[in-house]
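Notes continue from the previous slide.

Worked example: a multi-chain complex. Inputs as given:
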Amino acid sequence: MNSSEVTEEVLAPGQTYASVTDKITSLVLTKNFKPGWLLLISVSLLIVGLLLFAIANVLIRGVGIWGINIPVAWGFAIVNFVFWIGIGHAGTLISAFLLLLHQQWRTSINRFAEAMTLFAVACAGLFPLLHLGRPIYFYWIAPYPNTMSIWPNFRSPLVWDFFAVSTYLTVSLLFWYVGLIPDLATMREHARNRFARTIYGILALGWRGSATHWERYENAYRLLAGLAAPLVISVHTVVSLDFAAGIVPGWHSTIFPPYFVAGAIFSGFAMVLTLAIPLRRIYALEALITRRHLDCMAKLLLATSLMVAYGYTMEIFLAGFYSGDIYEHYMQFDRALGHYGYVFWVVLACNVLIPQALWSPSVRKNEALLFSIAILVNVGMWAERFMIVVQSLHREFMPSKWHDYHATFWDWATFIGSMGLFLFLFLMFIRVLPMISMSEVRKLVHEKSAEPHATAAGE
Amino acid sequence: MSLTHDGPDAIRHRLAPLRGRQYWRSLDELAQTPEFESLLQREFPREASVLDSIGRRSFLKVMGASLALAGLSGCGEPAKHLVPYVATPPDLVQGKPQYFTTAITLGGVATGVMVESNMGRPTKIEGNPSHPGSLGATDIFSQAAILSLYDPERSQAVLNRNAVSTWSRFLESLEAILADPTAARGQGIRILTEAVTSPTLAAQLNAFLARYPDAKWHQYEPVNRDNARAGAELAFGADATPLYHFDRADVIVALDADFLSSVPGNLRYIRDFSARRRVRDGRSTMNRLYAFESNFSLTGSVADHRWPVRSSLIKTLAWQLAARLRIAGASEHHVENNAVIPDHDLDAIVADLQKHRGGCLVLAGAAQPPIVHALAHAMNAALGNVGSTVNCIGPIEEAPVSHADSIRALASDLHAGTVGTLLVIGGDPVYTAPADLDFEAAFQKAATRIHMGLYRNATAALSHWHIPQSHELETWSDTRAFDGTVTIQQPLILPLYGGRSTLELLAWMNGARSVSSYELVREQWRAQLGSDFERAWRQALSDGVVPATQRKVIATTMRNPLANGETMATQPAGLEINFLPDPTVWDGRFVNNAWLQELPKPLTKLTWDNAVLISPATAAKLGLVNGDSVEVTCNTRRVTGAVWILPGHAADALTLHLGYGQSQAGRVGLGTGFNAYSIRTTNALDVAAGAQLRKTGASYPLACTQEHFSMEGRDLVVEAPLEEFSRDPEFLRKRVEAAPATSLYPEKKYEGHAWGMVIDTGACTGCSACVIACQSENNIPVVGKEQVLNSREMHWIRVDRYFSGDLENPEASVQPVPCMHCENAPCELVCPVQATTHSGEGLNEMTYNRCIGTRYCSNNCPYKVRRFNFLEYSALNDPALRLRANPEVTVRERGVMEKCTYCVQRISRARIGSEIEHRALRDGEITPACAQACPSEAIVFGDINDAASRVAKLKASPLNYGLLEELNTRPRTTYLARIRNPNPEIKDVAETRV
Amino acid sequence: MAPEDLYGLVAEFESVEAILSAAKRAHDAGYRRIEAYTPFPVDGLTDALGKPPSRLQNFVLCCGLFGASTGFLMQYYLAKFDYPINVGGRPLNSWPAFIPVTFEMTILFAALGAVLGMLVANRLPMPYHPLFNVPEFSRAQRDHFFLCIEKLDPKFDAIATRAFTESLGAVSVHEVPA
């Protein structure tokens, strides 16, 4: 595949319908397991064990085992929630926005990006449940007729959250599954093992690829994309309103919605890169996930980093100087130089400074560098959420109730555990489902063949 | 460990087949068995960490056993009293509380109270309006007494050499002692009591002494009035107690006198003092307080001028004041080059005093040497205050003695081995006696040692016999208020843990073998209550005071206090130690009271520990920070404690609070603080010079509820000097940013009642009685030190304390903060499940059952008044403590948010009452627990829609402002700005400090 | 094979161009019950087959509008009539606060409409289809393109149609058993 190493195309030359199909199906329809995969899955299972242990403890003993207190009544749980939700956004963005914008390069990465979205949202969903004082009653947030004859408070951003996140999860799932149907049919046809055939067969719903079906299918898919695009914006807007609707200095800011969405996409792309770079190596997918893909995502990472930087600047300007509000003043001052000052500087370094390296094409071409930048951005974005949630709360209006927050073992266990869960789900996905959309790549092969310089498809 | 688990069950199993008298006998036998011995060890565990839930659980198991044990000492009262009502008594309406008057004493001095009783369970203590020492208010100690009553760790069984025995066995051995022919005149018999103000008890004691002339009666209170007593003798040649009339005093000079918190009658004094500070209802003047003190006290925090002065220099200061006031003898000795504070300040104070002849006061603190008290008397006489602002009455103690001398005499007798039988009634001399008396060793020289007390304390552990004493709320007695007024103490409940009445024990010793305390008290008063005894008796019980029993004012003739060649103190060298009673556990008697342990101490806001208090300058000099563990050495005696830096504390001085570090206590008190008694000696009971401080390098976590003491330039407590206020009554509006006038949404109208509260920061002294009252009324759990360290305390009302100005001599501002009940409540808006919503009368209500615990409301509460049950805190209460719970208030479970409700249960009760009587609610009919307890009447509650109500009037005052008004939360709780009255002649204290 | 147990004839092609022209010619030849099967969506194929365009978007729009009205009316009714209570001094109908939920409901209903609508219109799921009996047909999910003329087509004639299909330049023609 050396030739593809240097290609700037979204698809290496010499690919045919058959070759891409066989390549992608073979990754799944093989009896043997890659040692790397086995290693990772066992690690992830260990961490999931830790997560279950932590969850059991918090359910039995109560959220008091975490570091939260009054005034800092929200800690890691909410930080992680926002972090994971944010991760999800890149997946939807790739599959929806780029589809609408006819970006060819989305084709071979949208499938696992969407999977990433799903699993990220699943992880995110854990935390709002666990952080409740009485988790058994979580469903009281939903409006359902009940013997208390009482309803949720639709003025509360948490209720908006409930609707936004559950809608987001549903739509992402539909989007992902609809995209999978034709490939499931392909799997059905390629699977040798009877059991696999049956399962894929059931999931494929008897897809035959008739022209009329394809036409409606594409129509529905485009409509879904058109709906997912505003949805993804709304979701992180609502998440940002959890804070912006509050009166806490450091939360109560009109810039939050756009700044959160940008941050979400930023962290999301960082995560896509974090996953894509090792994937294409381990599964020798350089022909399908090419340098071109990495380059495009690097550029998007840079762009969103600049948006986030703008968000920071405006917030500091508005809160710190323009507002003339002594509480905001103090919050800004404390944010940079207070007890959690180091977090602020980590955030600036990881999210603003370091991504600037992506201006240089050589950095964008260097997978190792790209990977480490992506990791740092993940760290930076988590730190940003910590800064917003914890730092804002620990120095509020009444100096008499100022208090610092210190995460306990259980806070860390739940956070790390959620990463394990994410890894586990993702590994299971790449083992049992085609991690690249075959029907779309075939279409891409056809389109490329239509272009004069490319090699003809078929044969 | 296994025994802890199966012990109680095993015993119950043994007891199962036994009934009646046989029951007791076989328990006697049972008491000898080894596993029972070890079970006892566990009933009074020594090495247990405070309130850790795991240990707690096993502890509860043991409690089960101790309930079984309670029977052991219970052979007095027949069981028929304890069966539930078959026919309800006529005066009791089920579910409706009854109120009984009685008194709670501290160091013998009574505070008259009304105890609320629900179906026979006393649940809440309120002040008795007709009692001179209460006027309807309460202090933290009388509020918290109800918890001690139910404390399951109170002594529950007669112990013989620390093994369970029985009352009858004890009486047998006592009989033997008293009947001993070789000691027919009571040779070698000693009785040690605390300060006795009970006429009946004194009568019994005197009767005993009459019967056994060679027996001796000693009295010892670790915190006593020895100095005042000696001072009075120095001044008048006779013991006398000054009674102050702050309602007539315009200028007050407090020489290390914390008259607002730690003197008898402080509730009365707070009321009078703060009444004279209110500039409203036409009053445009207020009193002025100058305070000199070493520790930063409540009195200092409300003073208009305060100088941090080492205790040893107060004498010099008094002297200089006296000299300027031409007190005979003072001027001769007057030394110029010995300035404690700048001369022109002294001159200004003296001028101020002289301007208010007959309307001023000079007070000397209990910790000051007699000469200072004498000089204070002399100055008051010279200023013509006697008869107007101060009167002297005879001491209220029945047999006033010097407590220090008394215990010293006892100790020497003990060492000399001349004491055969020592009967200790109340107190804990082994723990509290001055260290140089080596009382622990001395005590064990007595052949027979009997201790009667509420707790199995250090003294009990070394005694042959320990008798559980009945709590004040469990028995009949009588006692005196600070002015001598007598209150008959009546029991609210039969002894819960088989406690014994002191009166009955003494009567038994006097030969009256089966007389009840009830009869004893009645006999005591039969003569004095005149012809129609029964009527007078009932009247006395319902009023809570016995008429015309206060001590008469005595005419005093001033001598020259300096006659016997007193000389002036010179600048002392090195560090000096002040020994003071702890603000919450006092001399140690409340160490096992969890409410008082968790109550933030007024100025330091520390809980669960005492600390070595030092000034910032001294800390800087010695390189110490908060929590540093230091070894305090005072001539060869050492104690190790943690440092706490208190701005405004005098430099080169330490304050050590007594009462902590007890080796014998319940699980609440064990392992808290350090024992300051261990370096307190008879020659320096109050102030010890020449102490050294050594940093051990270790550090100790101190649980403080307010780590940040600066207001950060925010208008939280608004203060202004009197002249600014009189110059511009509207000054407040220029300072406080008002709420925006216009809103996106239409204004919400409240028809009918609209409850609101006004808190007068000018009147509040920060005594924190409101906090305990609220805790008692609303079943607020105690969470323990670990939780407080993570800022999870549950108090619904907290008293914020801020320092401003110079670090070495700051001004302190206090501010009680309950829920603001905002009309535009930010907390309600964000609750996803409508668990917190607004009532039609404007209350911000919590629906506990609906709360799912997102804690969003707390984040969005700018005042941070919401409290969250992070863990199952209510489970920390022992079953016994559940008896105390207020039946009208829900106990909250884990994961639920809670907060101040304006005592909604009281609002409902009053409303129901008014509806039954077909009338409208009257202003003042509803009083929340905090307001009811407040001695300075700083908290006023009522209907702001009723223009005639007190609260509406106060809200109309130009001093009225809302906390963080600019957030447009429209708080229903508002504050009155604090007006100070500094002397314009005196420049900023900070600049002129020497 | 006897005509009665025949579903139709299916021709196998190797390129997009081939299937497109074949489809066009079949339609021009008057065949109506024809259908093309491809491994990926081929633009213009439905036109070539003379199939009407999908009208899914109208349905989705209705679903969206339904979601929006349900979302808002639910909140309005519950907050103003069913459980009217003073929350933070805000009016019972705090409509600005009701917008987020309304929006999410719109998206949710529309998305469900799109997917379910597509499946229903496509008669999916359909576990069995005669075409699956043709072994070669599995390549329709890989790299080959198929054109099927059903026996029910009025113009269908076992001999003539077979001749016609072979004339389309198919790699091969298979009978599809019913």
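Summary box: Chain A has 16 helices and no strands. Residues 1-6, 454-459 of chain A have pLDDT under 50 and may be disordered.
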